[in-house]
Amino acid sequence: MATCLSYCATANGVELFNHYGSNSRLIRFSSRNTSSKLFLTRTSHFPTAKRCFHVKNTLSEPKHKVQDPITQEGAESNQSSFAPDAASIASSIKYHAEFTPLFSPERFELPKAFFATAQSVRDSLLINWNATYDIYEKTNMKQAYYLSMEFLQGRALLNAIGNLELTGAYAEALKKLGHNLENVASQEPDAALGNGGLGRLASCFLDSLATLNYPAWGYGLRYKYGLFKQRITKDGQEEVAEDWLEIGSPWEIVRNDVSYPIKFYGKVTTGSDGKRYWIGGEDIKAVGYDVPIPGYKTKTTINLRLWSTHVPSADFDLSAFNSGEHTKACEAQVNAEKICYILYPGDESEEGKILRLKQQYTLCSASLQDIIARFERRSGDRTKWEEFPEKVAVQMNDTHPTLCIPELMRVLIDLKGLSWKEAWNITKRTVAYTNHTVLPEALEKWSHELMQTLLPRHVEIIEAIDEELVHEIVSKYGTLDLNKLEEKLTTMRILENFDLPSSVSDLFTKPEIPVEDDTETVEVHDKVEASDKVVTDDEEDETGKKTSAKTEEAAEKDIDKKTTLKPEPSVIPPKKVRMANLCVVGGHAVNGVAEIHSEIVKEDVFNDFYQLWPEKFQNKTNGVTPRRWIRFCNPPLSSIITKWIGTEDWVLKTEKLAELQKFADNEDLQTEWREAKRSNKIKVVSFLKEKTGYSVVPDAMFDIQVKRIHEYKRQLLNIFGIVYRYKKMKEMIAAERKTNFVPRVCIFGGKAFATYVQAKRIVKFITDVGATINHDPEIGDLLKVVFVPDYNVSVAELLIPASDLSQHISTAGMEASGTSNMKFAMNGCIQIGTLDGANVEIREEVGEENFFLFGAQAHEIAGLRKERADGKFVPDENFEEVKEFVRSGAFGSYNYDDLMGSLEGNEGFGQADYFLVGKDFPSYIECQEKVDEAYRDQKRWTKMSILNTAGSYKFSSDRTIHEYAKEIWNIEPVELP
């Protein structure tokens, strides 16, 4: 006879009802708290019979009366749920500690408490997730899919219970169980699924999509080791593998029924039916792992589906293993699994390039197969492919998912039987592209040869798209001005360094000059030009060997002869595929991520495409979620905002933050504001001591630059400014120092890519400067320099609320947007920066007088670089002093010649100060003096801080998502009943 087990939560524990035939037996789990440990005891045993185990959430459904099976008394409950109070939550946590175990049963310590707590939250999320998914399935509405190589989520526990409005209840429940919510939450590792702003933006977008009830999902890869965990040693940055999945993640749900085949290599053949078939090669499968993403104050819970790569068990070579060839036996599995080992594996080697391209294709192919399967299932027996763009919107977050375009074409043509014209029309209406940079390294180009080897069918499709583009360009610009046409084709083609298709190549045919052989006869006349060389006794040839001198007479005889010269062999440029161009051609919308960036995209990066298709180009200024970046990470400030505005509605309607402006001069508000800031700074003081060993004081200005380490972001300018400050301090007596300088704690954080040598030199330099200054007794607390290791979202949530000044000092025109600048502004931090990225819009919103501006502007940069190349640049004396001070060994014995060399000379790769550190240095120092002056007047500074928060209302990701939904995806919000 079947047995059915169900459980419900009570104030005293978890009760399991064992329904066995006509009898019901109660299995009660009680708890007693002793020395902060939880002990669970069984009062009955399960009979050895077949059981089904029904588990319902205790937190999500409305109350109604049920009868207790033991007392027969009515209880305010649902058969499967209780109100989300502390008692029922505690019971749910105890249940998971016992029945979803990942740790031994003897102890209820912090790691176990975290997992049990997270699993209890996940119950609520799954019920809402299933309800959300069910609505989408039944209504068959248009859904957006956000494809990104990165999702930098941060810790999920506090965000999830905050969105569910259960923070207080969970805090009380854990207190009953002997733990503090903050300590339990600290056990969660950051999910290692991203690196910087690109990934954090994607996660903010998912939060806003769920909060605003938009039907959308995210797709990414489930990296086992992430980018890397950063350690700071005496040698600078050291990289070790991330361990975020070492003991598992309580949030993800493996979907073993969601699996798709992925193919690499092989060949393309034409079948008897005339169709193209991709056969042979290497086959793997991608398996889905789902992470529920809850909205704030809504039941809507959307999904982030991450792909993990495997091979079927049949691909394990059992015979080879038993023969002792263990490595060979596991080769297929290793090749599949390593695709999802590392985010952005080094690509200096051919193997690294192959692995990166495999990653990108896996993301695109698995996601599109999943999307298409969903479209077919929702369509039932009336699948109409022309309706696909009316049900599906695919957003490519930067160029990494570009292969969506040829992959969608391949599936539609090869597998679904559509014509080229039909498939191309569907693809162009479905896919859209977000550009995140003007930097060449982010405008990806792939070797045509490598891509043809790995993805032969996709190369055929890309070549056909390129040919269609060529014809469109010729049609647009005509053949009257062949030079202009050739220039357009060279710039706009997807295929770089390729001959033109035969259908248009005749336009550029030039008369051939007959050549008899492959040698060139040059007649040398009776004069030797000044540039010609007659070798003398004192000269050396190109090999460095001495040569004998010729007499003038002999030289004259030689020049009367005809000399036969072999032509220099021509260098054949490599053939490449321009992924960004393919995105623009294949997508129906192209957007930049800040006003100035979108203008640069139109006027410079893709100007030729903009002239051809102006209707495609849009701006979507980035935004960040106010839930994570004020409400949850900065409770003291959130309470003050709510108090003075009179409502907590600002969390969803950030335009209400602007109401703070009318209170900016209020002394009571200013006092509360400063107290909130100081309480956040005290937390950071403890954190820095724990992580770095350095002691700092909370009353100093906290001056913070935290972001990816890159030359264009100019951490080098920041640390040079600090060196200048330190040098000037050392030249003064103690009294002068205190008069002239405001105490500062200069905090850096961020990762340098493992193979980016110059960025790693910058990290090393910052840590060396810090080691010297922080141990200088003459300076004391007047100046501290701290590099925070392994910067991530959780560290940001601690540092940003404590910041007084933040630095966004990239070379103008090189930062697409930035999102950390928005987070700092939301938290009342005043910014020093250039007119770059979203700085431009932030300055407009917070007020020019509340933003410290310096540096050259974007339209000046090209001219300044030319000035340098022409040798006309005159370096600033103070800047040269700083470089000499560094070279003097003031910060240790490490040789910084290569670092300094990047700032010198007038031309050459890695030289000539390409990012204009020296040019902007005088302006930067002058601006920092204004910062000191403003900070001395705390009333003025606090007002500036309040106005920064008030002016940050525009930078909510909710606003950004509304614009994407309306102007690119054409989707409508759907609230769950």
Automatic annotation (TrEMBL):
One of its GO terms (molecular function) is glycogen phosphorylase activity. Its cofactor is pyridoxal 5'-phosphate. It comes from the Eukaryota. Its EC number is 2.4.1.1. It holds the Pfam family Phosphorylase. It catalyses: [(1->4)-alpha-D-glucosyl](n) + phosphate = [(1->4)-alpha-D-glucosyl](n-1) + alpha-D-glucose 1-phosphate. The modification N6-(pyridoxal phosphate)lysine is found at K823. The keyword Transmembrane does not apply. One of its GO terms (biological process) is glycogen catabolic process. It is an enzyme of class 2 (transferase). Residues 522-536, 543-565 have a biased composition (Basic and acidic residues). The keyword Transferase applies. GO terms for cellular component: cytoplasm. Keywords: Carbohydrate metabolism, Glycogen metabolism, Glycosyltransferase, Pyridoxal phosphate, Transferase. Residues 518-571 are annotated as: Disordered. Gene3D superfamilies: Glycogen Phosphorylase B (3.40.50.2000). PANTHER family: ALPHA-GLUCAN PHOSPHORYLASE 1, GLYCOGEN PHOSPHORYLASE. Allosteric enzyme that catalyzes the rate-limiting step in glycogen catabolism, the phosphorolytic cleavage of glycogen to produce glucose-1-phosphate, and plays a central role in maintaining cellular and organismal glucose homeostasis. Phosphorylase is an important allosteric enzyme in carbohydrate metabolism. Enzymes from different sources differ in their regulatory mechanisms and in their natural substrates. However, all known phosphorylases share catalytic and structural properties. Belongs to the glycogen phosphorylase family. This is Alpha-1,4 glucan phosphorylase. It comes from Anisodus acutangulus.
